[in-house]
Amino acid sequence: MYPWTVMETIVCPMGGGATRLYSALTQTRGSSPLPLPLSQQPDNTNLDPAFCQEQKGSPACPPDPAELLRQCEEALGDRPHRLHRKFTHLNDGDSAPSSPIRVMQWNILAQALGEGLDSFVQCPPEALSWSRRKYLILEEILTYRPHILCLQEVDHYYDTLQPVLAGLGYSSNFCPKPWSPCLDVEGNNGPDGCALFFDQSRYEFLDSVSIRLTAIRIPTNQVAVVTMLRCRSTGRCVCVAVTHLKARSGWEWLRSAQGSDLLRQLQTLVQKHVGAPSSDIPLLICGDFNAIPTEEVYRRFAASPLGLDSAYKKLSQDGLTEPEYTTWKIRPTGECCSTLDYIWYSQHTLRVDAVLDMPTEEQIGPNRLPSFSYPSDHLSLVCDFSFKEEE
């Protein structure tokens, strides 16, 4: 049994966002200052007015994300064009959902692993520097502005991602791996782990737990963060999990055991909250599963009594097939192009309204990922969900 922890809610007063972005991004390890303009106009359009008024004498007014995105693009200067991706809308002309839930799943590539152990032989060393990658990572997040953000391989949580995203109104929780491989890299920035962020103007925090996944009751090096939220506009609850399962061939049995452990933990959590407004609490489970769709852990999630489905199958013609790839890289052992990342959702209580498509092979380029255009070897997954009507 793991203790439940209450996350600290950080409220950003109006103004100062560009200064915060500049400070957080230029004072991190191994980076050099880049000039950022300080002008901005805060944007209140997506805030919950009642929630803002409840704050201690100051409305929760994050800086304008569009302005911060522009600053990231300016800081990146003459880099190649970013990957152009479009949303595929699935609601067949229905009216837009009143309370959309935009979810981003992304293995951002730990800085220590990118520069050290992962050996991306076709990627120029300059493209792997944190002084560039931090802007590319934030650019990706700011472009799609998810309400819920699930990240893996985070090793710059405290010095970059948490302070910058807190300035945009996100609250978060981070769970490092017990024996992170990042610690074996000279000059590392600490252990990597999973991080879960949510827009606190849209969601009320209820509960959160950090889980060390087990296999045959033995603790492993993989973790998960599970958070229970309540939508401020609808009052409905949603349970969100982020995880990163064991990598590499030969460990399929361990991934299956870790997945089964996470499913058990989620079932226990949902049962704990049966007194919530809805006894059938929707689940969103995001992660780098390090497993292709034919693996046992994938089949366990697909056949789970929790009624889960994989959102990215919606991109296929038949609605039954995963994308051809979510990661594409070249290492000394050869080229790897496979589907390892997923957004699972409760198909009986949530509806998929839109899915961000995958870039083409031509867009990714012959040297694959990461690159000057994209900071990770994994592509982000972004989906828009909405609550189905309660029966």
Automatic annotation (TrEMBL):
Family, as annotated: Belongs to the CCR4/nocturin family.
Cofactor(s) in the UniProt record: Mg(2+)
SUPFAM superfamilies in alphabetical order: DNase I-like
Pfam families, A to Z: Exo_endo_phos
Molecular function terms, GO-annotated: metal ion binding; poly(A)-specific ribonuclease activity
Localization per record: Cytoplasm
Gene: LOC116039580
Protein name per UniProt: Nocturnin
UniProt domain Endonuclease/exonuclease/phosphatase: residue ranges: 104-378
A GO CC term attached to the entry: cytoplasm
UniProt keyword annotations, A-Z: Biological rhythms, Cytoplasm, Hydrolase, Magnesium, Metal-binding
GO biological process: circadian rhythm; nucleobase-containing compound metabolic process
Chief site of localization: cytoplasm
Matching InterPro entries: CCR4/nocturin_mRNA_transcr, Deadenylase_nocturnin, Endo/exonu/phosph_ase_sf, Endo/exonuclease/phosphatase
